[in-house]
Amino acid sequence: MQESNTTHQWSAKLTKDNTVFQGEHLALNEAVKYVTTLKTNLPVTIFVDYRANIQASPSPKITNRTAREISEILLENSHIKISWIKARVGYFGNEAADSLANSATESNDVQLNIKLPKCHAKNIFRKDMMKQWQS
């Protein structure tokens, strides 16, 4: 990282049923959208500590709406790059991002209503049905 100053912060609270993948992708999507508002063609690298973000976004068979949006923005803005960094090793921005995520989790703010992945929703439904059946 060239500079260790923060130019923009964003966080949101998700429901307890949303996945880490959804939260990480939502944050990456917000970061990519923010960079497009800067109106610059200078190279910009967004560092992520969740490899699935990098692996899902460029896939041609994207079914996740947020990942597809990230991919489209990156295709239109070749100066924006995504790079993986190791988590929990003291990178300035990474520590700040983790702190924002923890604050959002513990806050009483309104939760974002993000559609659950079908497989995750089915698992929740099955668990609820088993609970009802056993009680």
From TrEMBL:
Organism name: Araneus ventricosus
Listed InterPro entries: RNaseH-like_sf (IPR012337), RNaseH_domain (IPR002156), RNaseH_sf (IPR036397)
Annotated RNase H type-1 domain residues: 1-106
Gene3D superfamilies, sorted: Ribonuclease H-like superfamily/Ribonuclease H
Protein name: RNase H type-1 domain-containing protein
GO molecular function: nucleic acid binding; RNA-DNA hybrid ribonuclease activity
Top-level taxon: Eukaryota
PROSITE patterns in alphabetical order: RNASE_H_1
